[in-house]
Batch of 2 targets.
Target 1
Amino acid sequence: MRTVVCRQLGIELPIFAFTHCRDVVAAVSRAGGFGVLGAVGFSPEQLEVELKWIDEHVGDKPYGVDIVIPGKYEGMGEVDPKKLEEMLRALVPDEHRRFVKKILAEHGVPELPEDERPPELLGWTAATATPQIEIALRHPKVKLIANALGTPPGEVIEQIHAAGRQVAALCGSVKQAEAHKAAGIDIIIAQGTEGGGHTGEIASMVLWPQVIDAVAPTPVLAAGGIGSGRQIAAALAMGAAGVWTGSIWLTVREADVPPAQQDSLLAATSKDTVRSRSFTGKPCRMLRNDWTEAWEAPGAPKPLGMPLQFMVTSEAVVRGHHYADKAKDVQFNPVGQVVGMMKTVRSVKDVMYEMVQDFLEAGERLQALTADAGT
Ligand SMILES: Cc1cc2nc3c(=O)[nH]c(=O)nc-3n(C[C@H](O)[C@H](O)[C@H](O)COP(=O)(O)O)c2cc1C
């Protein structure tokens, strides 16, 4: 499985794991892959704590940090996080706040204690992501910064390169991939529509080879729908330099996902996901439930843009996390179609080991075919 990105980043296996959980980051990197911490939900101060913990638990292995600077969002151009939040709060209609309260009340999800109100504006603006980058670059084992939802601004790419680190960016179309390449992105992540979280409309099988050809020789990581070694073999056979995975790490033993939420994921099939704007304002793949259906129902308010919609729904996400047993039917469960393959809770080490075994078996199957052709 040694590919160009293994040499670029000093790793054994080109298996990248996106996760919001520091334990998973450290365990994946220790197992020879490359853990990437999703920073979007952390304040700069919290991010510093998480990265310090990873530094102490990852040994001498490298890891990455993922930030979100969307190509388009409400309030673009305002660089002061406090001013941006104030300005955005004024744009949130009461109707949306009332609608959220009603859905939660109808499902009996308790209110949060007064002192546990969540921040409303997450890291998905340039104003909020910039301090995260500064923190990440203070940690020498952070070898890669990835950006979601657009090509990062030129000065951000320069800043990361000047610190001797690499930049990756996600895309869901050839056009976006070409923009990344033109901006000087080092590693492009092509994510098919079946992936968890924010996704485009093109399936992995169709997207990956097109992006690989369009941006060559820039290395491409295949993302969206990967949960096994035979899928890794397929991606590498198409010319991908590695794989970028997300959903599969939600049901590992090390994941910081409440048991009730893990149960929903383990019980779901590949038919149970939907692309919905109802939590973040941009199409995001998640489990279909009463919440996603409520926003589709006649008379429901239209979801706001990013980051306004999450300013309305952040409370629902935190209440869902706190009271996971009660919030099962309205929980924010971002996950991809590969959820149908996630049937047991395993350790990170076991997932990595099984991926490698399955990859080798896939290679043997192909080799047997070519050997047969010669006889
Ligand atoms: C719970 C969850 C949250 C995600 N959040 C982010 C994010 O904040 N930033 C990002 O770049 N990608 C995010 N993604 C997408 C992943 O980086 C990755 O591209 C995707 O999970 C790959 O498809 P898969 O889920 O089929 O493995 C998220 C995915 C999941 C499942």
Target 2
Amino acid sequence: MSKIKIGVIGAGSISEAHLNAYANNDKVELYAICDLNEERAKAKAEKYGASKTYVDYHDLMNDQDIDAVSICTWNNTHADIAIAALNSGKNVLVEKPMTTSMEKAYEMEETVKKTGKKLQVGFVRRYASNTQILKKFIEEDDLGEIYYAKATCIRRLGNPGGWFSDIERSGGGPLIDIGVHVIDVLWYLMGCPKVKSISGNTYNKLGNRKNIKNLSFYQAADYDPDKNTVEDMANAMIRFENGASLLVDVSFTLHAKQDEISVKLYGTKGGAEVEPSLAIVTEKYDTILNLAPQVDSTTFDFGQAFQAEIDHFVDVCLGEKETLSPVADGVEMTKILSGIYESAEKGKEIYFD
Ligand SMILES: NC(=O)c1ccc[n+]([C@@H]2O[C@H](COP(=O)([O-])OP(=O)(O)OC[C@H]3O[C@@H](n4cnc5c(N)ncnc54)[C@H](O)[C@@H]3O)[C@@H](O)[C@H]2O)c1
């Protein structure tokens, strides 16, 4: 069987997770790397044995040997690169957030329909083993009707700087960067109900706190703390047409005592925690039970989840599987994220038809 040839566009931090997982998949040939920063592209190509490097992604699109691409660039470039790839006959795995505007989201969806090529959105937490274990319980109705979900993803100090904090390139701050993961995994586990209304708040109170010493944090490949045009905190209440609601709060920085991640769902027959550790809460013979699954990892395992996401994408490209994170879900998630920003800007709840 001939291997599928992959191009990776954007050779910064997260490309390493994609490249590593492709390298572990024997149905794949890692063929090309593209980055605006030529040295970065060449270094990754050398490390992973890719035969071609590109600086301009349009040139990569003309390379008919490439079957599929991973897009690991700044958020504002995802849509144009994905559309160009689909139009040149390539399947696409695009990092989250899928894009930064509804217009671009619809254009991506149209292009998938028009070309018949595959697009998978990098909602990596959907592919994590803790998510998939819980999904099985939900499908078997162990939680009953899920009517409330709650996510918190708080960094007390963690604005990555560079393009992440430049709203033109990122489209927003912690909401679009880390909030997207926790909102999406809950929405996926809730069965992707249709959004009815959103009430959100964003705050720019603390800035990026570049003055802080003696505490290290994640920084972008091209770290630059001097520009910061994104929110440092966001919260929202999302209402769904089926009556369920989702409450979320996220931050790049906050005067919190510690970082916190928590992802929880509550239903009529039981509840569940995906983070900080997989747990299921139920009731039997008038007694409440907290069930502790005995599995290799009860929390988000970064390496496992990326491997599962990439392996799944490769099988999608080979026509053996349907993606777990299709473009339609990317469109809906763009609607949720844009809706939170719109509600915060207008200072009122917004409604969808
Ligand atoms: N799934 C996850 O858990 C996860 C984690 C981190 C980042 N991400 C996403 O991955 C993407 C990249 O993030 P990162 O942390 O790797 O950023 P990064 O700054 O480390 O790397 C981005 C790279 O893209 C390159 N680039 C930008 N525009 C380009 C273009 N038009 N053509 C070619 N190269 C281009 C930059 O030169 C840079 O090397 C973002 O969309 C981010 O949201 C996802």
